[in-house]
Structures are given as C-alpha cells and as structure tokens.
Write a structure and sequence with these properties.
Blueprint lengths: L1 H15 L26 E7 L10 E6 L9 E7 L6 E6 L5 E6 L5 E5 L8 E6 L2 H5 L2 E10 L2 E9 L8 E6 L4 E6 L10 E3 L10 E4 L4 E4 L5 H4 L3 H5 L2 H4 L5 E6 L5 E6 L4 E5 L8 E6 L4 E7 L5 E8 L9 E6 L5 E6 L4 E6 L7 E7 L7 E3 L5 E5 L16 E7 L4 E8 L7 E8 L7
Parallel strand pairs: 12-16
Antiparallel strand pairs: 1-2, 1-29, 2-3, 4-5, 5-6, 6-7, 8-9, 9-10, 10-11, 13-14, 14-15, 15-16, 17-18, 18-19, 19-20, 21-22, 22-23, 23-24, 25-26, 26-27, 27-28
Length: 436
C-alpha cells in the first residue's frame, strides 16, 4: 500500500509539475501520466536507424525545427549519433518529459537523452547496456511508456530461443532496474482468465487506462523474425507461424495479468481514446489487415472483436502505426507495404468507417498528429531488414496540414540525402515546456 501511494503521489507531481507553463503541442498517444498540453509544437525528434553507406552509418536522434516563424522551419537543426547499428526502433518520454528513452531491438541497448536542458539540442544522458541481464533474459526493448517515477518497457523476445515469448520490464526514471513481468503463457497463465485458443506469451506495445486500473499489451514476433529479411520470412512457413495472436489485460497497479484475449494476425499499436467515458482501445493486426476494438461491457468485462478492414486484406497492406484524434472521433492508420494512410470515422467505435485516404510514399510507418489535429507527421522505416529495397526504400519525415478534408504537404526531409538513415519513431518537443 505504501508503494502504491508513492506511485500515485509521483503521478500527481508529473501531471501538474508544469501547470504554470505556456501550452504547447503533444501527440495524442502519450502516457496519461504526462501533462496534457495543446497548441503548436516546436520540435520533432526522430529516432533514426543508421544505414550502411549513409552519413556516419550510426543510429541517431534527429531534431527538426517545426516552429512556423523560424528561419529553419522544416529543417534538421541537430543530430546526435549514438554509435553503431542497434536496430533503432521505438522510444518515449519519461512521465516528467525531461528525458527521452530509446531502444535498440538488436543490441538491447537503451539510450536516455536529456531533452529539458536544451530542447533544440538533446544530449545523451545515459546508456543502459544491461537490459538482458537485468530482466532475466528479455530481449528487444520496444515500447517505452512513462509511469510515475518509472519507465515500463515492453520486450519482443528472449535470449533462450530468440522467439516471441517475452516480458514487461520496469525501470526507475534514473535507469535502475525494478522488476520483470513475464507474459502469461498456456503453461503459466499466472492466474489470468483465458479467452483465447492461443496463449503465446508474446509482447509488443503497452498502454494504460488509469481510471479503470488497466494496462493492455499486444503481441508481435521474436528476434529470429524481426531481424530476418522480409522477403525470406514471407516464404518461410515456420517463420510465418511465429507471430502473436493475443492482447493481454493487466492490473495497472499490481502488474498482474487479468485476461488473455484472442486477436489473431499480430496486433501492434494500442491506442486508448481520451474521453472520460470511453472504455475501449483500438489496435490493428499487421497480417490480417483488420481494425480491432478492445472494449469493456456493461458488467466490466473486457473483450476483443474485429470492427473494420483496412484496405484490401487479401493484398496484405501491413497496417502499422495508428493515431486517435484528441476528440476521439477519427483514427489515422498507416499501412507499410502500400505506403497509404487512411482516416477512419470512429464516432461509433463498434462500427468505424473509412472517410479518407492518401498515398504518402512507397512505404510509410509511423504517424503522429498534433493535439489540435491540424498537423500530421509521417516517417518511413519499419525495420532494417523489412524496409523496401532500391528506389522504393524512401526514408523521410513528411509534415502535413489537415484541414478536415485533405492532407496538404508542408515540408519533406529526405533522410538519405541528409545522410541520416532510416527515419522511425517521432516525438514532439518545446523549449517552453521547461521555462520558468
């Protein structure tokens, strides 16, 4: 009980620590423990995978100026290399937004960047290279989700067989290991209710709904697949069977799994809406190209069900990142293989309808939209061995205005021409957040 009170107290500090600062912008998919802020973002941070023959060939955190009045608007103003190729993938802010944590899916290194000292030019604060040892064998740090005084990290694999069975791993904000929570399996459900013919123990994303005291985790695949050439993997029958089929409901406070739900086809990003009575979340399945609803019924029980197709599932467009608008009315969905973004009306979450689509490039992965919904950003890279080859291997950050009817391009940065590599996850920043 004392530990829980400390966590809650830290949460209130995180929520209100910057209450007197001017309002700025934020992506809608951030941790609810972070202060919710609106307006115009100043910087976009892009965690970028190095590429042989491109620039210094190193992973790096790239800062792009998006202040409309700036002479350097739409340009790279800082680039911080971390050395080597780590399979740079995802990252996230600590709950106080002072540090940005980013991981390498191959080397298992975690890079903690100081954002608050100079928001325009982040500094490398700390490198954690003991993730596998700390966690007891988890591999592939993926999602970094800020909790009060803590960072919750999903892993994608393990060091025994490099398969998909894995864990949640918790650290302090200072980068000290706290605990490992292995995903429930058929052999060890850990007391979770099973509502799935498969209990795979796989992991990918994590998101929380505080007022309901739940976390949800999704499932993907292990090191042996995500480090394999994409074309080779598609022809490997055994490899194609090594993908996750579950979403797990957890008790947020105790970190105990409560229920395993069936979501076949590799469910990836999980997104909760912000409405005070919106007791549901969305995810998409990469292999079956479906939009799934994870929702609570009138008795307080959570369930999963498919609610829409994304493009033509028979062509396997491979839906990847998603972003819910702050008013909970629309959802952007990117699909990697066809380079498309699609907008769904989710005003009825049980019956979403596509209302818009646009081809962004030959490939597209991540999408981040501003809190006011007026600006939408896209990046390109999925994984080093999954990105397209040759001329189709476009690597970029693209920024658009959204007027409610059409995406209007504002700028595009070619990460190859800039010598930066493969552009992956984005997060927004502003110097105003840390001003007194």
């Amino acid at each position: 009980m004392k530990q829980l009170k400390n966590k809650l107290a830290a949460g209130f500090v995180a929520l209100f620590a910057f209450g007197t600062t001017p309002v700025i912008a934020d992506e809608t998919c951030q941790s609810p423990y972070m202060p919710k802020i609106t307006g115009q973002e100043e910087f976009v941070y892009v965690w970028t995978l190095g590429e042989a023959g491109v620039g210094d060939e190193s992973d790096k955190l790239v800062t792009v100026d998006v202040r409309p009045e700036s002479d350097s608007y739409g340009k790279v103003i800082a680039s911080l290399s971390v050395g080597g190729l780590n399979e740079a993938h995802h990252g996230g802010f600590s709950a106080d937004r002072r540090y940005f944590w980013a991981g390498g899916l191959d080397t298992n290194k975690i890079f903690i960047f100081d954002i608050h000292s100079d928001a325009a030019k982040p500094k490398l604060h700390k490198v954690v290279d003991s993730f596998v040892k700390d966690s007891g064998g988890a591999v592939g740090p993926h999602t970094f989700y800020g909790l009060p005084g803590r960072m919750m990290i999903t892993a994608l694999s393990n060091d025994k067989d490099h398969g998909g069975r894995t864990a949640l791993v918790e650290y302090t904000n200072e980068g000290d290991y706290v605990a490992t929570y292995w995903m429930p399996t058929a052999e060890n459900p850990q007391g979770a209710k099973i509502d799935s013919p498969v209990v795979d123990g796989f992991g990918y994303d994590v998101r929380a709904l505080i007022r309901k005291n739940i976390m949800l985790t999704s499932s993907f695949t292990g090191w042996s697949n995500y480090m394999m050439d994409f074309g080779k993997m598609l022809k490997d029958e055994a490899a194609m069977k090594r993908f996750g089929q579950t979403v797990v409901q957890w008790d947020l406070h105790t970190r105990q799994p409560k229920k395993v739900m069936h979501v076949p086809g590799a469910p990836l990003e999980i997104r909760f809406p912000w409405g005070p009575n919106s007791n549901y979340a969305f995810t998409t399945t990469a292999l079956t190209s479906k939009l799934w609803l994870i929702h609570e019924d009138d008795e307080g029980e959570w369930h999963s069900k498919p609610v829409a197709d994304i493009g033509d599932p028979s062509k396997v467009p491979l839906p990847v990142d998603i972003s819910i608008a702050a008013d909970d009315q629309h959802l952007w969905i990117n699909s990697f293989l066809d380079g498309m973004t699609r907008l769904f009306d989710i005003s009825d979450p049980h019956a979403p309808k596509q209302v818009y689509e646009k081809k962004i490039a030959s490939q597209v992965n991540m999408v981040s939209q501003s809190w006011d919904g007026k600006r939408v950003y896209f990046t390109s890279s999925l994984l080093a061995n999954w990105d397209k080859k040759g001329a189709d291997n476009e690597q970029f950050l693209k920024a658009y205005d959204w007027n409610g009817k059409e995406l209007i391009e504002k700028f595009s940065i070619d990460f190859h021409k800039e010598g930066l590599g493969r552009a992956h996850i984005m997060r927004f920043g502003s110097s105003k957040l840390y001003s007194s």
